[in-house]
Design goal:
The longest helix has 20 residues, at 2-21. The strands form four sheets. Strands 2, 3, 4, 5, 6, 7, 8, 9 and 10 form a nine-stranded antiparallel sheet that branches. This protein is an alpha+beta fold. Among the domains are: 2-120, no CATH class; 166-208, no CATH class; 233-358 and 561-607, no CATH class; 397-525, Galactose-binding domain-like (Jelly Rolls, Sandwich); 805-901. Helices cover 41% and strands 10% of the residues. The protein starts with a helix and ends with a strand. The chain is globular and about 90 Å long.
Length: 902
């Protein structure tokens, strides 16, 4: 120890002199990377060997098991951390059983402690600040984005590229803004006269296109884990397409991003929410529901809540948060309890893994809308506002009801397929912790399987006082589910209810006599002494019972049904720890003063300009869509373990502009980017550029990327002249080979859409989680069981099997051949036309020669095989010339210049 101490005095003399010559050590960029790489695996959020952790400053400065202190600010000679890093004893030296740290890293850590061991924050968790763009006097610069890129390029010794040719640029910006090559008037004008004014006019036209919303919705559906099925074993159908349509309309209207997020997180909690605001909350109803019999509904309810927490952080806040479910974050400043305080915002929602996906918003048709308006007009005059809100809520949602799957303590009863309360003769079941609130009516959804029987409600015990009796003879002859109102005795407070069922006519002891879906405790329809009462009551019950299309939505429990949130010990939902209240991590911006402690308050916290993550994450995501990678490549993790930001000042600048100058307008942000010279660069790469920056990290050239699965399909439809521009509505089923679906129990079949529905854009294609549309997966679409913050840049050669063989592309090859053959009998001209139609560029002589040779080879083969010729032509009569042109068109659909954005 004396030797070590002596070493330190000599070392500190040198260190003191050195510190005078150098700027202070920066924790985030210099110290934190060393701690994360070398120390935190044993001294972090998961492990705290020796009671030493370097995740949080107060832990790092705490006393160790040995009684010493790991870090003593200002005194590296007394800091056990430095003593262990410099020890020559292999049993003491750290990192244990690993190579010693390089001396320069030890020197850096020592100097950092000498300077006071200031902790600091990672840049992603600091408030966004205003940045002044670098000065630049260069003709290449078009807007402020270019000033940042030019500065970085000069620092890297890179030569920036000239602007791409007009056809390439028009195709690029069309693909990026609307998802397929545009042929509208503004684009035609730009191609005829590629002036700056015409380029800007083309961009504005694309941003104003109704198909803009479709393109950006395709991006968002991955984040929302959107699918037309529920997932898991049965993977049954789910009607949630109105949420997809809400997204399209929101993007087209350029809904400010703070409002866009607020409505998806908490649209139901806004004052007097509209139908659209309810539908927006389906963002978090895209979680999966397990319809398999024998599963634990609470387990999968909890799984859905956890998914909402993880998705909110990954998709909207660009942060890995899922690991905090089990322990404090190993690398970033989030504690174990932060996860459950955040989870509490979502844990009080009404959904409970029910087969029918309750709660659901019921959609009125025109006649029902008129009835609803009449009912509202009567209530405006004759009932209180509180009564009106309760009636309105129940008519629209059948909520708040107790789901029968919460029943337990069965005697000769069960949850049928773990979904509905099923009762046999002489049976009983319990519904626990029901708030009766002196209500005098019970509305229930019931189906009768056997004639007759008496159903009773007992208070607190199976043989307790009867507070309600239902004679099921009243349902004789009625088929299917029935919504029925029955009187009950008013009782105050929370109680366990025991249901009993007896039916003397039910001889089979195993036969189910009756099933129940949900129970809604309420009062009689109000205003019984008011004029028009009977008509209003009839309209109310007509709407309650009417069959309607629905959309799953989020909705919170009313206070009497509040659900308590507790910490899961080691992340297990079966090991419950302390109770927590809703809250956000103390390491980020404070929760807004006066904001409610619910999802609406959470949305306000997220959209507060002081929140460091929301705007940065969105800016980074839009940049990735345009350039193929984000300014931070790891879109899902801006934190200390994510990729380094290639242009930190630019990300800061754009994020500040997005909030303050653009007022959260995504269209303004996109317009700024695509008008920059950075975006407009030619994508050709020189040998020097490839050697200096192979991944184009510093953007000295334009993007060159494989198109997404949706873009490849949509481009082919558009260029072949068959794209159906119809928007919105239920999903469609274009061509798909037989045998793709094998759905147990659900009985779902792929029924190919008729007429022009098969030519609708890719985002309208029915998305089944367990068997997504094959060409989507071949082009690296995602499964959507969970949120996907970014897709890989797709490039597998197996994709040629789709574009060359899929029946969709064979059909489109015929359409392209038809379009190319218009007004010319010459085969060479047809081939040239087909190429230009698909690429927007004139064909080179080498490509023309190759494709004409393919035409001739195909024709020779087809003349010898009439059956193959009929197959290629899709006609009864074989035509070898036409089949050969179809073959060439099919090859063109697979060309690199067609399926790549350059």
């Amino acid at each position: 120890m004396q030797l070590r101490t002596g070493y330190f005095w000599l070392f500190l003399i040198a260190l003191t002199w050195s510190c005078q010559q150098q700027p202070p050590v920066d924790f985030a960029t210099q110290v934190k990377p060393i701690l994360n790489k070398e120390c935190i695996i044993c001294h972090g959020g998961v492990k705290k060997q020796g009671n030493f952790s370097v995740l949080f400053r107060e832990e790092a400065l705490g006393q160790l098991k040995s009684g010493a202190y790991g870090i003593v600010p200002g005194h590296p000679e007394s800091s056990e951390m430095i003593l262990r890093l410099t020890s020559t004893d292999p049993e003491e030296r750290m990192p244990y059983e690993h190579d010693a740290l390089p001396q320069e890293q030890i020197d850096l850590l020592t100097r950092w402690i000498k300077e006071g061991a200031q902790w600091g924050e990672h840049w992603a968790y600091q408030s966004i600040r205003e940045v002044t763009p670098p000065m630049a006097s260069d003709d290449w610069v078009t807007n402020d984005i270019d000033r940042f890129i030019l500065k970085a390029a000069k620092e890297q010794g890179l030569q920036l590229s000239p602007q791409a040719d007009p056809a390439t640029l028009a195709r690029r910006v069309s693909l990026d803004l609307i998802g397929y090559p545009d042929e509208g008037p503004a684009t035609v004008r730009y191609l005829a006269d590629p002036s700056e004014a015409n380029y800007q006019a083309m961009v504005d036209s694309l941003l104003a296109s109704p198909h803009y919303g479709e393109k950006w919705t395709s991006m968002w559906l991955d984040l929302a884990r959107y699918a037309d099925t529920k997932g898991y074993e049965r993977d049954d159908s789910r009607d949630i397409w109105r949420y997809r349509d809400w997204l399209i309309r929101a993007f087209n209207a350029d809904k400010p991003y703070d409002q866009f997020i607020t409505e998806q997180i908490a649209g139901d909690l806004l004052p007097h929410p509209s139908e659209d605001q309810y539908i927006a909350t389906a963002f978090h109803r895209n979680t999966m529901t397990n319809d398999e019999g024998g599963t634990d509904n609470e387990e999968f309810r909890v799984a859905a809540v956890l998914d909402r927490v993880n998705t909110t952080w990954e998709a909207l806040l660009g942060t890995t948060f899922a690991c905090v479910q089990c322990h404090s974050h190993p690398y970033d400043p989030f504690r174990h309890e932060d996860y459950y305080r955040f989870m509490a915002f979502f844990n009080d929602t009404r959904d409970e893994d029910t087969y029918d996906d309750y709660p659901r918003l019921r959609h009125f048709d025109s006649l029902q809308t008129a009835q609803y308006q009449q009912l509202n007009q009567w209530m405006d005059t004759h009932v209180s506002e509180t009564q009106k809100q309760a009636i309105d809520h129940f008519v629209k949602t059948w909520q708040p009801a107790y789901n029968s799957l919460r029943c337990d303590d069965f005697t000769n009863a069960e949850l049928s397929d773990t979904k509905w309360l099923a009762m046999r003769n002489h049976s009983s079941a319990r519904l626990s912790r029901v708030y009766l609130g002196n209500n005098e009516k019970l509305v229930l959804r019931v189906v009768l399987h056997r004639p007759g029987g008496i159903w009773r409600i007992h208070l607190d015990q199976p043989d307790g006082p009867v507070i309600g009796t239902l004679n099921l003879n009243a349902f004789q002859g009625k088929r299917g589910w029935i919504i029925h109102e029955m009187p009950i005795k008013p009782v105050e407070g929370h109680h366990d209810l025991y249901f009993t069922y007896d039916n003397a006519s039910l001889q089979d002891p195993l036969a189910t006599g009756v099933r129940f879906d949900w129970f809604y405790f309420t009062n009689a329809f109000p205003g019984n002494h008011q004029p028009g009462y009977q008509e209003a009551r009839d309209e109310y019950w007509s709407l309650v019972n009417a069959p309607m299309e629905t959309t799953p939505i989020l909705m919170d429990n009313p206070p009497p049904m509040h659900r308590v949130t507790r910490i899961f010990e080691r992340g297990s939902w079966l090991s419950l720890g302390d109770t927590v209240s809703p809250g956000t991590p103390a390491s980020l911006n404070p929760f807004p003063e006066g904001a409610p402690a619910n999802r609406l308050g959470l949305a306000r916290w997220m959209t507060d300009p002081e929140n460091p993550l929301l705007a940065r994450t969105l800016v980074n995501r839009l940049w990735k869509q345009l350039f193929g990678f984000g300014l931070v490549e790891t879109l899902e993790d801006l934190g200390s373990q994510g990729a380094a930001c290639s242009h930190p000042a630019l990300l800061e600048y754009l994020s500040w502009q997005f909030i303050h100058d653009d007022a959260w307008s995504m269209k303004k942000l996109l317009r700024t980017i695509v008008l920059s010279s950075t975006y407009r660069q030619d994508s050709h790469i020189s040998e020097s550029q490839l050697a200096a920056d192979p991944k184009n990290k510093y953007l000295a050239r334009g993007p060159r990327l494989r198109l997404t699965a949706e873009q490849i399909r949509d481009q082919a439809l558009a260029r072949c002249g068959v794209l159906n521009p119809e928007m919105y509505g239920p999903p469609v089923m274009p061509y798909q080979p037989d045998g793709i679906w094998n759905s147990p129990y659900s009985g779902l079949k792929w029924n190919k859409s008729k007429n022009q529905e098969q030519y609708r854009r890719a985002l309208y294609t029915y998305w089944k989680r367990t068997a997504p549309y094959p060409s989507m997966i071949a082009f690296d679409g995602v499964g959507r069981e969970v949120c996907s913050a970014r897709r890989i840049v797709t490039n597998t050669p197996l994709q040629a099997l789709v574009t060359l063989n899929d029946s969709v592309y064979l059909d489109l090859s015929r359409k392209l051949a038809d379009r190319a053959a218009q007004d010319t009998p010459d085969k060479t001209k047809k081939v040239s036309n087909a190429y230009t139609i698909m690429t927007g560029q004139p064909i080179s002589q080498a490509s023309l020669t190759a494709l004409v040779a393919l035409f001739e080879q195909g024709k020779a083969a087809y003349e010898l095989d009439p059956e193959l010729t009929r197959h290629m032509c899709g006609t009864v009569e074989p035509d070898s010339d036409y089949a050969s042109l179809v073959l060439v068109a099919n090859a063109i659909l697979n060309l690199d210049e067609v399926i790549t954005k350059s």
